[in-house]
Specification:
136 residues, 2 domains
Length: 136
């Protein structure tokens, strides 16, 4: 979460109130002029809940940036967010796992494949001789 805030500090408050309300299980205000849901939830939040409110703000921003371009281009920031979700126990959908895989492959291609024996990526086997996971 800290990585997302540091990478995009100006985007933390960009998520739509409707999505934030859904994540926080709060009603959406009837007449919204600007952001109201986060401030209302913050007004009576305990110290322990503040971290969850911040996570909801970050999630709202990150989730609203996902679109067809995300699935086609596998941007690093989307892959980082999806990897974070997976680390919390969320099971990635196949298309989300593909974004993470493709972004990692792009990073490997940019820096070399990183394998000690010089085997090219996608050779069909890992260093231990087992079949590579080509389903992603």
């Amino acid at each position: 979460m800290a990585t997302e805030i540091v990478a995009h500090p100006d985007n933390v408050g960009n998520g739509k109130d409707e999505l934030l309300a859904d994540l926080l299980a709060k009603p959406v205000p009837a007449h919204t002029w600007g952001r109201q849901v986060g401030a209302a939830a913050l007004s009576n939040a305990s110290e322990a809940r503040l971290v969850l409110l911040l996570l909801a703000q970050v999630a709202t921003d990150r989730e609203q940036t996902m679109n067809e371009s995300t699935w086609r281009n596998a941007p690093t920031d989307a892959a980082r967010w999806l990897s974070f979700l997976a680390s919390t126990g969320y099971t990635l959908a196949p298309i989300e796992a593909k974004v993470v895989h493709d972004a990692a492959a792009k990073a490997d291609n940019a820096t070399g494949d990183g394998s000690p024996d010089g085997a090219a990526e996608g050779s069909g086997s890992d260093n231990d001789g087992s079949a590579a996971d080509d389903d992603l």
